[in-house]
Design brief:
355 residues; 10 strands
Length: 355
Amino acid sequence: MEKYSPYSELKIFHHVDRIQGLLKGERVSPIYIRIKPTNVCNQNCFYCGYANDLLYDGRQVDKRESISWECMERTLKELAEMKVKAVTFSGGGEPLCYHSIRETLRLVQSLGIDYSIITNGQALEGEIVDELKNAKWVRISFDSSKAETYEKVRRVSTYSKVVQNIANFALNKGENCTLGINCVITKQNSEEIFDICKMIKELGADNIKLSPIMVKDGEEDYHGQIKEIVKEQIIRAKQQLENENFQIVDKYSNDLAIAQAFRKKYHRCIIQELFAVIAADSKVYRCHQRAYVKEGEIGDLTQNSFKEIWNLQETVEDVRQFDAFEHCQFPCAFDERNILLNDFINMDKNHINFI
């Protein structure tokens, strides 16, 4: 029997209560929040969209900034009151460099919110493993099968340590915790993709997601030089390595970021009514791509609580009047979900019973 991907775009339709609220025009609580607790990082990846201010127009990141513990504690408790289902901790910087990461993970567990983390794995050792072994998922950013490639991409010499941390976490994680790997495909690692997949399977991970590097200009030209050799390796890896215990999630071969322009097929970004980003500057943003960009800001947690920001009439109007067709001409992680939601909410209901 086929094992369905945890990355499925259809997960949204399990939240019937929120979707029904949207159909009625209500301001529903968010389902999911991404928290970037700190901009401090222990690596220096050349493709990082937060360390490199030039990758996104207008993005300004203070690499010293972190959310205060007081703000984090207050906000997490408020998210629980609002019945937020899940929180992911990510960058910004490296979330395991956050000064209050253990307290944060303990609190989110006690509140009964599903939690996950995206980490480079360098600090995934010792007591922090106990706080993460019962996460819904832990995703480690790792994109090299050789130490020399790792050092070129991440500009640190911690390859062996991270490999060991991946293997150790695979052995110690809870039964319901999925260990995944994020692999960003670049010219530097384009000939190692099969070997990376093989290595990750042997280390005990449950899946690996392969995605293209994002380049500010010229994605198609950049990937045109490597795409065929990469796709051949992905096909071979899926044929030889995939089984019921290990999946290869191919977000590279048909990714819009290397295929066509990014103009959306819809105007309304419905995901903004179900999701938000809280960044290390203690501001609330409408999405990943617009984090740390003035146009993406919808509130400031040093001025208002999250619940106040979410329910302010000006926030609601801002979100509902935002035109994705006009303003979002770049790749979007939620694009397919927005297409599904727009099709669902706007369908001609005269014939809905003729299934």
